[in-house]
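Dear colleague,

Following up on Tuesday's group meeting, I ran the structure prediction for the two-component complex that the binding team flagged. I've pasted the input sequences exactly as they went in, so you can double-check that nothing got truncated or mislabelled along the way. The structure tokens for the whole assembly follow below. Feel free to forward this to whoever is handling the docking comparison.

Inputs:
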Amino acid sequence: MSTAMAKSSTESDFSGLDYEDTELKLGLPGISRAAATELERKRGFSKTIDRSDNLTAESTDERASAVGKPPATKAQVVGWPPVRSFRKNALKSCTYVKVAVDGAPYLRKVHLEMYGGYQELLSALEEMFSCFAVRKLQGSTTNKGRRLVDQVNGVEYVPTYEDKDGDWMLVGDVPWKMFVASCERLRLMRSSEAINITPRAPPQVGSRAS
Amino acid sequence: MIEDDDQWWSPDNSTNPQPKPDAAAADPPPQTSSPSFDLVLENVLENVLCFLTSRHDRSAASLVCRSWFRAEAQTRVELFIGNCYAVSPARVIDRFPRIRAVVLKGKPRFADFNLVPIGWGAGFSPWVAAMAATYPWLEKICLKRMTVADADLFLLASSLPCFRDLCLICCDGLTTAGLAAVAENCRYIRSLDLIENDVEDDESEVVDWISRFPPGTTCLESLVFDCVGCAVNFEALEALVGRSPSLWRLRVNDHISVGRLCRLMSRAPQLTHLGTGSFSSFEEEGDFQNSLDSAFNTFKSLVCLSGFRDPVLEYLPAIYPVCANLTSLNFSYAIITPEQLSPIISSCHNLQTFWVLDAVGDEGLEMVAATCKKLRELRVFPLDATEDSEGYVSDIGLVAISEGCRKLQSILYFCQSMTNSAVVTMSKNCQDLVIFRLCIMGRHRPDHVTREPMDEGFGAIVKNCRKLTRLAVSGLLTDKAFSYIGKYGKSVRTLSVGFAGNSDLGLRYVLEGCPNLQKLEIRDCPFGDAGLVSGIHHYYNMRFFWMSSCKITLKGCNEVARRLPRMVVEVIRDQPEDNCDSVEKFYMYRSLDGPRNDAPSFVNIL
């Protein structure tokens, strides 16, 4: 993980001058920020899956390539966004987990408390990685359960999660509340790689109907 | 929230760089008429002036002549001090002998975001010492961003027999011991409102302050303690509520479970303002659905609902019966989905104030727009206050609100992405806007559709919203945005800027163009000495000016300090070994009494 995720108070020690100087730009050194923005706009970035500007790229290159982005380091700036610590602390207890998709270069984050159950979570994931469509496999003995299928290339993904013990489990194995409490991160794994992850309970007919 | 401005100086709309004559310090003009005639006149005046309540009117009256100055001073009962360092306690008690209510504000607002080092100042002690000795009839104190020690509360409680209303907002330094002193000694206490203060005791030193309220029927009307970090004695609280027949506002902290909430509600069915605490059941046995349902069913007069700090969502439907009467609803700590919001908000036809988390999404905001036609104030807070968090609300939600809530006066909106078009739409639809605060959490983020700076959007706001007095900007902004603010923002009094602008021109536009600007807070912008100096003609009219992480140097600050002797110019260092020439944090304010004597070592007053 990027070390830049650590909260850094040194960011505010930089004067505005240093801040601009360290900002990645596409122009030659010394070019004004406004001109650099112009350049970046004219390049016409191709849209990625998510149309919004809100790419949660872990890789710093990804972030720098977006228009007008601040320095490559993703250090949190002191006091930004301007939310009082009283409020931040009150909401701290809510868990968000990172979602990775095999083969995609960026992560998303979800707040598990927002969803009432597995179906809602998977619908949200489907929307997030919008080229997928949820499909339930019928009749498969070893890989029964929920799948996400990439409509573009037909690749199947299995939602898996890492629990507090560091084990990778299939999403959907345990009661929802237990899952929320124990899930550390999510990964949409290619089916081909997921054969080593076995369901916790032996598959029962109709047990995973949504 | 009321936008206040103090007026020790009368507004100076001219370009005259000289400060207005300071009535408080001026020598009295020679008297030409006989003393007895003056006395009669003053007595008459006093009887008339006591009807003046607006402090702006009072300030104007006090400047007419010496006689009016004296009469006004004798009759002023409410004191508003927007910056505790603008004037000394000694001067205040000397001028105004009959004060009964005080509002006192301390630290700059950016202290809320950890930009002001601890120990900077704004202590209440010198004030309480002076006032406790001089104002025995003092009834009401409201403090914002002050450091209030328990000793201060002890002194206050023991010196002021008539004390009735204490309101502390964003203060620190106090513990439950101080609260206990107030509860115990202020026999006629009417309201004890603790709002977003830092009241964190050591586990071992928590005092049972609730038990200290006087026995028997109390005068208590308002008790707000949702920010108190430790649990309170519930039996004592229940008893207190039961013997407070005048209580109309009760906001409990998140240690109170739903079961206990129901018991409190049954003791106080007359409540109009309720803060529900956690709205969860902790380890309590049993199902509280029925109790909650019946509790809310009998609450006919409820107009303001808040709390929901960690709600059990299954219990939320209990509030349906009160929704139609609600004028204020604060869901800003509850993570709810649009589906959960829908049945609630669709009944809230009378809602005027709504605070919510962005987790409800654009969809949730569309619901608000569809129902809440009387909405005056909307605040959308981020569930995940980081720059790269998921954006649940966007330009879509903003447009929906602007189309549905035409009477909107105040908006605070956190989002990850925005468009100029949406902001322009809001500027046209919501002509009553007084407060517009948009926080695009990703720094320097442009319009996500056109990739252009957000200049045009904010420009439209200042141009179309003629009543706008408070503005907070964000996103990618060039100097053009500031030229718009300077050109059209003639009523703007408070401006908050971060990570914006290209050059000193941006700051100049604002300082030269906004004659009513009183509070300016800037962080991380490329504004330097040229911009700083361009405002010298105006600074005496301002309450304060904060700049941090910009490009100003000591040279510029020294020049301002030299040319404006009545300004206090503070340069605040984060680290002791900071480069001496660059100025990391700059805080400037006018003061009648010169530099303060309690500045810590990391503050350099020029």
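Strands of chain A lie at 96-101, 107-111, 132-136, 146-150, 156-163, 168-170, 183-190.

Cheers,
M.
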